Amino acid sequence: MTEFFTLLGHTFDQAPWLFISLSFVFAATIGSFLNVVIHRFPVMMKREWQQECNQYLQEYHADIVKQVGIDKLSKAIDHYPPKYNLVVPGSACPKCKTAIKPWHNLPMLGWLMLRGKCAACSAPISARYPIIELITGLLVATLAWHFGPSWQFVFAAILTFVLIALTGIDLDEMLLPDQMTLPLLWLGLLINLNHTFTSPADAMIGAAAGYLSLWSIFWLFKLLTGKEGMGYGDFKLLAVFGAWLGWQMLPLVILLSSLVGAFVGITLIVTKRNQLANPIPFGPYIAAAGWIALIWGQPIVDWYLSTL
């Protein structure tokens, strides 16, 4: 087995284009699954919250349950099947419920073959599905080009997959689930015990500094305005990048995410696609800035220091 991996690594070293191509195909396939995660995981979370609320009401507020009826408190996601997770039920058209054939689930190609419509009822299929598959493939192919066949590539790809899922969920639900951010945080600390991306000390300081920096800004803004400027999920996501990349990269991540977030927010307001008082998810900008810092962070910092 060791000889096989040695031979495989030698082949990829001799033909890097092969490694990059295979990485793209594999990641695009994972991107198809990430579409499922983005859509279903929030539903699964809401069902869990709903069950907890119902149990609490039944145990401690029987009078409310009797007046309102527990069935009326549980209608938010009743149109989904009773057994609903990342695997069951199989993919189907949301309009006609026709099961999607395996070859129609091929990354990007399936959507193109269907011409963006359901094969049974011709209901439109969102272009977001092939776009996420394409983006996932391109990002991981970039990692393959940058890191080559290495453990850094493997861990960076895992980080990228979870960041894409978090970005999609935050855009849809204004939510960064702890079930995704916290495992990333611990994984970053663990892999850097072996200096994968930074030293163990820098990773630990980075995790604490990432969380506390946004936490401090959150409370300062709240004390001054009485409003909450961001969610706790944003603190944890920045802590993730502190754990993965070290505290030295946090200023760059904060600066890049703030600049992109401000640009997008102002653009949406100017084009009247968003009102000034409406919240805008900040997680996607942290994720994008952190991913850029993962690959080009040090060259960017070196370039900036050279201009001083």
Brief overview, please?
With 308 residues, the chain is an all-alpha fold. It is 69% helix and 0% strand. It holds the Pfam family Peptidase_A24.
Topology:
Elements: H1 2-14, H2 16-60, H3 62-68, H4 109-114, H5 128-147, H6 151-173, H7 178-191, H8 200-225, H9 232-245, H10 250-270, H11 283-307
Helix pairs in contact: 1-2, 2-5, 2-6, 5-6, 6-7, 6-11, 7-8, 7-9, 8-9, 9-11, 10-11
**How much helical structure, as a percent, in the residues?**
55-70%
Radius of gyration (Å): 22 Å
The description of the largest β-sheet is: none
Secondary-structure-based class equals mainly alpha
Residue share in β-strands: under 5%
SSE sequence, one letter per element: HHHHHHHHHHH
- Report the mean per-residue pLDDT as an integer: 85
How many structural domains are formed by the residues?
2
Q: Give the strand tally.
A: 0
Whole-Å distance between the termini?
51 Å
Poorly predicted ranges: none
Structural shape = globular
| SS field, number of helical segments | 11
Membrane topology: Multi-pass membrane protein
Keywords: Cell inner membrane, Cell membrane, Hydrolase, Membrane, Methyltransferase, Multifunctional enzyme, Protease, S-adenosyl-L-methionine, Transferase, Transmembrane, Transmembrane helix
Main location: membrane
Pfam families: A24_N_bact (PF06750), Peptidase_A24 (PF01478)
